[in-house]
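pinging the channel bc i need a second pair of eyes. not urgent but kinda urgent?? the chain im working w is below, pasted from the shared doc
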Amino acid sequence: MYLIALTGGIAAGKSTVARRLVEHGAVLIDADVLSRKAVEPGAPALAGIREAFGDEVLNADGSLNREKLGAIIFHNDDARAKLNAIVHPAVRELGEKLKAEAVRNDPDVVIVHDIPLLVETGRNTEVFDKIVVVEAPQKTRIARLVEERGLDLEHAIARVEAQATDEERRAVADVVIDADGTLANTMSQVDDLWMQVQAERGVSRRP
C-alpha cells in the first residue's frame, strides 16, 4: 500500500489531479464525498450536529440544511471548530473503512486521499508516503469560483481567504503541482508524479 495525501485550496485543481491519478490506477478516497455521507440522515454525526446547533440547521425531511449551517459557522471560528470536531472523526472512520477494503482487494494499491483541509485540521501527515499540494494563485481560484461555480465575487474571496495560505501548504508538501497553466501542463506534472510514485513503491517509504 502506498498512501498519497492530495490537498490544495478551493478551486486550485485537486479534482483534475485526482482524476488523472485514478486513470493511472490509483484508488481515490475523497474527503468531500465522505463528509456528505457522514451527515446523511441517520448518521451519528448528523445527530451530533443537531444537538450542537439545533433543529434550525435541518430541513423538514431531517436532512442537513448546508446553507443554514454554513451561515452559522462561516464567520464564527468557535462554531466551525465545534462542527469540525463532530464531522472530521466520522470522515476519517469512513475513509479508514474504504482504505481497508482497497487493501484487501490489492495489497499493493496506491491510495489517494483527497483532503482539502489537510493543513487546516492539523491532521497527522506522517502516515502518508507522499503529500501532494495542488496550487494556483488566489486570483485564478477566485475567478474559477465565480465563473465555474457561480459564486458572487465577495463570497468567492471570503472562501479563498478563509483557508490556509500557500506557504502553509508548501510547508508540508513533498510535491507541488502548478495548476495555473493549461490542462496539458497540469496532466504532464501528474504523469511525472505517477512515474515518481512507481519508482518509489516498495523502496522508499516513510518510517
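so Confidence is low (pLDDT under 50) at residues 203-207. and The CA atoms of residues 39 and 101 lie 21 Å apart. — does that match what u expected or am i reading it wrong
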